[in-house]
Amino acid sequence: MSLVVQKFGGTSVADAERIRNVARRIVDTYNDGNAVVAVVSAMGKRTDELLALAADVSDKSHPRELDMLLTAGERVTMALVAMAIEDLGVRATSLTGSQAGILTTDRHGAAEIVEIRADRVRAALDQDMVTIIAGFQGVNPDSKDVTTLGRGGSDATAVALAAALDADLCEIYTDVDGVFSADPRAVPAAHKIDEVTFEEMLELASAGAGVLMPRSVEFGRRFNVPIHVRSSFHAGEGTWVKEETMEEAVVRGIAHDSSEAKITVHGVPDTPGVAATLFEPLASAGVNVDMIVQNVSHDGTTDISFTVPDTLLEAGTKIARDVAEGVGAGGVAVDTEIAKVSIVGIGMKTESGVAARMFRILADHGINIEMISTSPIRISCVVRGDQVGEAVQALHTGLGLDGGVDA
Ligand code: ASP
Ligand code: MG
User: What is the residue-averaged pLDDT of the chain?
Assistant: First the structure.
């Protein structure tokens, strides 16, 4: 008998009929002789609605209460799915993250799973029950308060549970057929990827491919849990995320992200310690910086530019202004009209010249590159926001991905 963890995203459980469909899927897996743990998201856009409701009631920050509110979304789904399963003649029980023993750090809204005490889940499985678990949430063992794991966090719940229970497989059911070579809304010729390594998926997810939360891929990699991303609307194969793939693509996929902004501090004195003076307070305030570029000028000053998520722009700008004043810099400029395009492939480790090909393709389309960053298997460029669609399309074609075969 196998143990399968299945996760169903918001669109898959958006209404009563879809919830009954999900229940049928779970029961089919169970009737095939598997033990099943299902992790569910809030119905449809419920999390967004709850966030909007909170903003309507108060314009202040209430981290603990906001988490209490948001965890309710997943709780609604888990109970409804359990009811629908029982109606199909299979015993089911639902558990909140806290009841399932998901222990997290105390950072409300962005808590990290530190341990899973899955006794209660195991006990339910021992009694031959299907267990439905509310995704995206846990509890901090010190404060005893419920926490949420950040947007898309049900993916992390599912993969972490699969690791803790030593499951054979983690299936992520979603509203698309799998992971694509680029966002199909930007590139009509984008194709479903059959297999992708954990390392590649981590890069793609961090670079803006929305289909999996990056942290879930980290769990998959760390505990070697194969993840199957597939459609909840049909039975076809999706994308397998695993340690190794049959073939090592030079470019497996392209991701883009328009949700970052650029902050530039002009005329910074070019002396040791200035970068640390700027980035230390950003780090302590939890403003995660993505790309950094420093230009040296002739008069002994430099310009430092960096990108931050749009959501942290206000906090980041305020800190940059304070630091700029403190070190006698020229000033701070903010640019929200940027976007990042990234190409990812494990074969880049051994193939040279990939960056040059990327830059040539962008140049031939008159797209200016404003910042560049790389990892051994990724190259990212910041471009003007209104050119990012063209950039993704041009790279997909130019790097040979249109035909459905990896470059
Ligand atoms: N419901 C949460 C969200 O919308 C968590 C999830 O769906 O994974 O972000
Ligand atoms: Mg998701």
Answer: 96
Q: What is the CATH number of the domain that holds 291?
A: 3.30.2130.10
Cα 214 to ligand 1 centre (Å): 13
| Residue 189 burial (C-beta neighbours within 10 Å; 0-12, 13-18, 19+) | middle
- Where do the DSSP E strands lie in 57-210? 92-95, 102-104, 113-116, 130-134, 137-139, 146-148, 169-174, 195-197
**Does one domain contain both 254 and 398?**
yes
Write the CATH number for 31: 3.40.1160.10
Q: In the chain, how many domains are there?
A: 2
With a 6 Å cutoff on the Cβ, whether 138 touches ligand 1 is no
Strand, helix or coil at 403?
A: coil
Residue 347 structure tokens: 């074969």
Q: From the CB of 97, is ligand 1 less than 6 Å away?
A: no
Domain presence at residue 181 = no
How much is the pLDDT for 299? 82
pLDDT tens digits along 98-138? 999 999 999 999 999 999 999 999 999 999 999 999 999 99
Q: Is the CB of 238 under 6 A from ligand 1?
A: no
Q: What pairs with residue 92 in β-bridges?
A: 130
- Would you say residue 388 lies in a domain? yes
Interatomic CA distance for residues 325 and 319, integer angstroms: 10
Pair (21, 111) in one structural domain: yes
Do 65 and 157 lie in one domain? The reply is yes
Which residues are placed with Cβ below 5 angstroms of ligand 2, an ion? 9, 152
* Contact (CB, 8 A) for 253 and 195: no
